[in-house]
Design a protein that fits this description.
The chain is an alpha/beta fold. It folds into two domains: 145 residues, no CATH class; 139 residues, Glutaredoxin (3-Layer(aba) Sandwich). 50% of the residues lie in helices and 13% in strands. Keywords: Signal.
């Protein structure tokens, strides 16, 4: 091979190497673009993954030793898993292209997550699904699962109320035509102040026009009992009925007892709270404005539970209202304060 042939051969090899390098570069660029591009949403997979996690966690709740003093955040892992799987769904806004079955899966997941702690993501997902379902020619029918999808409009509205998204709740109610008797319009203008005090909602007014007032509570001031109750809980009602009839014993002890129920009861359960407050002579229920503002030692999802507090320090906890004489245990702990 002469010099010219050798030069031509080397030139061909060089061109091949450059071409190969260019192909590799292009392939890498395509791969990078594909990896950066958003992946298709797998709603069914996310729904199944969340429900499997929910059932597994709920079936193996940590015991008191594992929890330590943190009662409030026992269900926080469920909310965190929900956010991990479904935050992207709200951001992508795929609702118009989702089949009705997928929409219902998104809705049921958000509803389940909101049961443990109302938050903006679950409320806005429920709102978005409801608005999309309203556009479709056939209304969703009950399939025996919970929640009943034929009630999606009012449940979405209450989820916005429970999450304290009042402006969005008002606009949603107008858009969906929520009946005025079911609206919580007296809440719309409420903006509780900050500071160290906790905020409570006190429902009042008439059956057809429930009004709310904001009350503040400072756990640092003196002895008190926080009674975590629920008007739909049989044991809570037994405790409240007994202590309402025997309120003079609480009065004689000189320690205030504050009857507080979950943030999520601002919505669907409000009528039960209002009825109780109208009928009871002494015990009046309040609604936690935002449960996440409370100390981690206090939770409202297990009822009844009584927290005995002295100047902000938790002295003792009484769980439930069972046995032959639960009132004896209650008054024994009350007198210790």
């Amino acid at each position: 091979m002469n010099v010219e042939e050798r030069m031509e051969s080397m030139s061909k090899i060089k061109r091949l190497m450059v071409g190969a390098a260019l192909l590799v570069f292009q392939a890498n660029a395509v791969h990078a673009a594909e990896s950066e591009a958003p992946r298709p949403l797998d709603v069914a997979g996310s729904y199944e993954a969340f429900m499997a996690f929910h059932d597994e966690y709920h079936g193996n709740l940590p015991d008191q030793e594992e929890l330590g003093s943190n009662h409030r955040d026992i269900f926080l892992p469920i909310q965190e898993e929900f956010h991990r799987l479904f935050k992207g769904v709200l951001e992508a806004e795929p609702f118009p292209v989702l089949a009705s079955g997928a929409l219902q899966e998104v809705y049921r997941t958000a509803y389940t997550a909101s049961f443990y702690m109302p938050d903006e993501l679950s409320a806005r997902l429920m709102k978005s699904v409801s608005k999309e379902l309203q556009q479709r020619p056939s209304a969703p029918q009950s399939d025996g699962q919970h929640p009943p999808m034929e009630q999606h409009e009012i449940l979405s509205y209450y989820s916005l109320i429970n999450a304290r998204l009042f402006d969005e709740a008002r606009n949603f109610a107008d858009h969906m035509g929520i009946d005025e008797s079911q609206r919580r319009e007296s809440l719309y203008g409420i903006r509780p102040g900050g500071g160290e005090a906790l905020n409570l909602l006190r429902p009042g007014g008439s059956d057809s026009n429930v009004q709310f007032e904001v009350e503040s509570l400072n756990l640092e001031r003196g002895p008190m009992v926080i009674a975590a109750v629920d008007s739909g809980c049989h044991f809570s009602k037994e405790a409240m009925e007994y202590l309402d009839e025997n309120h003079h014993k609480i009065h004689d002890a000189g320690v205030p007892v504050h009857w507080v129920t979950r943030q999520s009861n601002t919505g669907r359960a409000l009528s039960r709270i209002h009825d109780w407050n109208q009928d009871a002579e002494h015990i009046k229920m309040r609604i936690a404005w935002r449960e996440s503002d409370w100390p981690e030692t206090i939770a409202f999802h297990t009822t009844p539970r009584f927290y005995f507090i002295e100047d902000g320090e938790l002295e003792s906890v009484m769980n439930g209202w069972v046995g032959e004489a639960p009132h004896e245990e209650f008054f024994k702990l009350l007198r210790r304060l």
